Amino acid sequence: LPVVPIHDLxxxxxxxxxxxxxxxxxxxxxITPLEQLTDDIARGxxxxxxxxxxxxxxxxxxxxxxxxxxxxxxPPNGAIIYxxxxxxxxxxxxxxxLDARDSLVRRISSRPxxxxxxxxxxxxxxxxxxxxxxxxxxxxxxxxxxxxxxxGPLAPPGVYRVxxxxxxxxxxxxxxxxxxxxxxxxxxxxxxxxxxxxxxxxRVSAANDAVQEISELQDQVDAVAxxxxxxxxxxxxxxxxxxxxxxxxxxxxxxIYQVRNKAPEDPLNxxxxxxxxxxxxxxxxxxxxxxxxxxxxxxxxxLAAELQGYLDRLKIVIETxxxxxxxxxxxxxxxxxxxx
Length: 340
Description:
By secondary structure, this protein is an alpha+beta fold.
């Protein structure tokens, strides 16, 4: 806020708007912590403030194309969550979003696993933002998708709960997600859309998990084959068996994912496979606030059945071919392929 005269103030929807003299309007977004602040909270320890209603909005928040003098920063898109912490926590801090049935929607930790978002916490007032998305589909290193992604489904309107935990301390507050007032879709329409998007996400995760598992198995088979080739006698036979197993695994993997995709535009040259088709379908279903079309259900059923065929094939390989290969490796005193 520049040093200017303020001729009027007004509160609207938990925002403070200031009318400056000749320098436009200035808005302090979301003053719910000030509205809820009491002497007890101010004198107390950790506190989680009750978030204001979050509007379910398609698309990112507005960001100026370039930095302009005097242009402010708009609030982020999603649910804004404030918490006061008396000191910087030494123990793990977690922020969890729960649905009306107390089922976990999202979990963000100050000590995340690889590839997960990090919860940044400091002493004093903290602001966290939930983007109103459920958990993403699983990924693997080097994944390239065309016209599709792994982002989680947008939460339907309803009542949720926010839980912040630091060591032995934990507090929860209600959070209401409301429909964009411009949207004409009914709650039932949005529920159907959400349910199909969850099914699509889970199938994409299953497909990507299979691709990752096959890659790990191939690496282990390669290691066995390398040791086998250095052995006299039956080592050559074991190496050939390793090559056969790798070929079988590769056939399944290449049916699920286009392994030749290494750069963003490679799918222009190499046809996408079933995991990318499912992800693309998710983009179509989630592209607008509306119930899925009948064709979307039909395409999902077709792609899910195709994927299941490949997963069933992989299961047979893991339950028959891999144990047979391990028995042959054991005869040569070579460590077996380890399965998760």
